[in-house]
Amino acid sequence: xxxxxxxxxxxxxxxxxxxxxxxxxxxxxxxxxxxxxxxxxxxxxxxxxxxxxxxxxxxxxxxxxxxxxxxxxxxxx
Length: 77
Known about the structure:
By secondary structure, the protein is of the alpha+beta class. It has one helix at residues 67-75; strands at residues 3-8, 16-19, 34-35, 40-41, 52-53, 59-60. The mean pLDDT is 87.
């Protein structure tokens, strides 16, 4: 966390709060809902693009496109 504060109130990391200078590691496949309530600056490194699980059942990437169509070939590598 470079600036601000990141909080997570869902999943296995419920109650997590990190501040400037802290490091967070997430296991592969973990689901969570994290945000910066007062804003923040984060350096995030991913091996694969995040999956977003939409209320309508779709799984998308950050652009809203179907994750499997774009990234499943990389996921099998």
